[in-house]
Amino acid sequence: MRHFILISILILIHEGVARAQSITDSNLPIVIINTDGGVSIPDNPRILASMKIIYRSPGQRNYLTDQNNPAYLNYDGRIDIEIRGSSTQFKSKKQYGFSTKMADNISNNNVSLLGMPDENDWILNAMVFDPALIRDYLCYNLSRQIGEYASRTAYCEVVINGIYNGLYLLQEKVKADDNRVDIVKIDWNDNTIPDVTGGYITKADKTTGDDPVAFKMTNLNGSTVDYIHELPKPEEVTDAQNSYIRTQFMDLAYTSGIFNTSYTSGFPSIIDVPSFIDYIIISELSSNADSYQYSTYFHKDRNGKLRAGPIWDNDLTFGNDLFFWGYYRSKTDVWQFSNGDNEGSQFWKDLFNTPEFRCYLSKRWNELIQAGQPLNPSVIEAFIDQTAAYIYEGVERDNILWGNTGSFEQRIIAIKDFLDLRIPWITSSLGSYYTCSNVAVPPLVITKIMYHPSASVEFPDADDLEYIEITNNGNQAADLTGVYFGGTGISYQFPRNSSIDPNSSIILASNYTVFRLKYGFSPAGQFTRHLSNKAQKIILCDGFGNIIDNVNYQDTIPWPDADGNGSYLKLAAINLDNNDPASWIASNDVITSGETFATDDDLLVFPNPVSNILSIRAGCEIESLKLFDVYGRLLLLLNVGSDSYELGLEELPKGFYILRIVTIKGTCIRKIIKD
After folding, report:
1. What pLDDT score does 6 carry?
2. Contact 412, 390 (CB under 8 A)
């Protein structure tokens, strides 16, 4: 027999209509908050409370009677909490910011809530301006699906001091963290190059509370855009730091205003172009009435480029607006950066009006709307339907509780109808991307990755020993001007006018000084932050973000074992697909200041596939042979000392192998098939 606990309320909502609602169980997680002494939660300061999250597992119902059963509690501990928001505060349904605390009520408690990575800063988003209760969730998920970070979210139903408060989104607060905005946390004494270059989180927004405006910009209409620091904290930013990040924005405004696309002196040398394009795409797909002017975040890592995002506050989207205040701005046939209202800083429009930028915007958009891609209309519609079905009963309770009228089904249909008009309009308005559809990039290849070094007494911090090797697989010097690491991983931009010699390599390290002490030579540069010990996508791009090379390595099979054991990942042959784990070996060979790859015109390796004897013929002396299996394990090492060799493979099982041939002219690699 089901236990029945009734939690009900009678509340006077903003519209003056009294409603009552109860909850006993839900298909969603249930968050229970009890403030110390049962006091009401204020806007400021934060107060202490206890919180429990009832969550059995995906697909199972959650019951209030489980609140004292540890087996079904996702969290059971202390928090401090306050009301958050600005324009939302006049609504009776409040939204909250809270931090998870240790039992001492002081120390932060980094924990995973509902499957999200460990942290202590969280938000309960009330979604009060979104009658469909889905818009933030939809936009954040779409942003992550196209490769950008956005706050992770989980729907839940909330009970505070015994009173049911309705449907909420539990979500991550935007902050610097390895699993959120992954940047170095700048300190008050970081005031000179390179430390002053990052990391920053700055937003264009309205100021709330005591947060001071860091600097202002304007648009063509003469409207002022206020910029506010999130990192460093507004009260901690130094004059040097504020001046540096302001200069980045002003340089962006100037270079985009004269349509300067130079990798040396134009806006591509300042901003990560793909992140600005992705920000525009999500903002314009949803026709976000607040984008560019408010809740518009930017971040910049040390030694990296200025990036747009993460997206935030996407409730006035897909045709929704503050209708009760007379606004109607989220339309299917306008650009939000050029609609006469909330346009944000002028550089958004100037970027769009730059032919090269607009071409790449069109290219990216048209890629993302293809069949099976995240912004394909059918894919979005299926995601909307899945989400609507998941939250349906919570929406019904929330609507009754807060007196919301109208049909949830019709609101979902309205969003899909909006997209049916919006997507074709954007596609038509962006036009052709022919001129940037097949851009030549330098023949650079990521050939070595030391992602999890082993520590030692001499070098106790293993992270300082990380490095990446990049090889020029061409017969001419490769110009590195504008080349940088894109995405949300490590950060580095090559100095202007630097280059790599033909068929040669350079190494970038995580710590320049430690690397030189360990390996006896200087790396070509130092990247910011560290490589993941588990899995990471390394993206090497040109100045406009065209991908030159990328590797998505992992520390699990079928990738070779280079996980903290002193080995590094080494591409077995320069022309192999380096996203194929079988193309890599785990090597502990001593690295040098650069490795020259021999041309293999005079090298013969036959027959291949091979059954018994593999013949190797070179036009010069062969110094040594190494044979590896596909997992990078060394099977055979032979010193040769002649220009030919007969290698017996009779005892080997059938399969793929990697043969490394070192000659006096350099190194060659062959993938061998044992028949």
Report:
1. 32
2. no
Secondary element (H or E) of residue 386: helix 377-402
pLDDT of 597 higher than 80: no
CATH number for domain 439-597, candidates 3.90.1150.10, 2.60.40.1260, 1.10.260.40, 1.10.1510.10: 2.60.40.1260
Q: Do domains 439-597 and 598-675 have the same CATH topology?
A: yes
Residue 544, helix vs strand vs coil: coil
Nearest to 76 by CA among 44, 51, 110: 51
User: Does pTM surpass 0.90?
Assistant: no
DSSP string, 441-455: ---EEEEEEE-SPPP
Specify the CATH class of 598-675 in words.
Answer: mainly beta
Contact 47, 39 (CB under 8 A): yes
- How do residues 231-265 score in pLDDT, each as one tens digit? 999 999 999 999 999 999 999 999 999 999 999 99
Residue labelled with tokens 């002193």: 566
Residues in the chain: 675
The full set of domain ranges for the chain reads 7-172, 195-368, 439-597, 598-675
Question: How does DSSP classify residue 38?
Answer: G
**Per-residue confidence band for 620, with pLDDT thresholds at 50, 70 and 90:** confident
What's the average model confidence in pLDDT over 2-6? 31
Distances (CA, A) of 111 to 29, 116, 169: 16, 9, 17
